[in-house]
Write a structure and sequence with these properties.
83% of the residues lie in helices and 0% in strands. The protein is mainly alpha-helical. It has one domain. Helix 3 packs parallel to helix 5.
Amino acid sequence: METQMTGTDNIASAKAEAMPLPAKWLGATGAVPFVATAIIAAFGPENWSAWAAHALAYYGAVILSFLGGIHWGLAISDSGTAKISAARLCWSVVPSLIAWGALLLPLFYGLMVLTAAFGLALFVDTRAGTRAVVPSWFPDLRTALSIAVIASLPLGLIGAA
C-alpha cells in the first residue's frame, strides 16, 4: 500500500535530506556528554555525582561558546561584502561571556544560567533561520540538540545540590 505525501511532507523531507550527514552525526555525538553526565549526576553513585555535575557545567560552557563561534564565523565570512553585521559579531561573543560567568558561580546557579543561555541561543539561531542567514537545516538541528541539552542541564542540578 502506497502512502501519498502532502506538500508539507515534501518540505520536511527536503529539509531533512538537505542536512549534511556529518552534521547529524557530530551533533548527536556532541549531545552524548550532556546526557551521560546528567544521568550520572542525577542517578549515579554518590561519589560520582558532584564530579559529573561539574563535568556537565564545563562541557556546557564549552559548547555554548562554540555556538557563539558559529555566528562569528558567519559574520566574518561576509567580509567580502560591503558591511559585516555588527549585531551578529556582538551576539557571537555573548555566549562565551555567559558561559564564563556561569562557571564563576556556585555550580547549582551556574547550571541554571547555562540552561537559560542555551534557550536564548536556540531563540537566536531559530530567528537566524527565519532570516535565512544560516543554512535551512541548521534550526532543525539546533532545536533537536537543544532539547537534549536543556533537559540535561537541569537534571544535572540533582548532582549539584
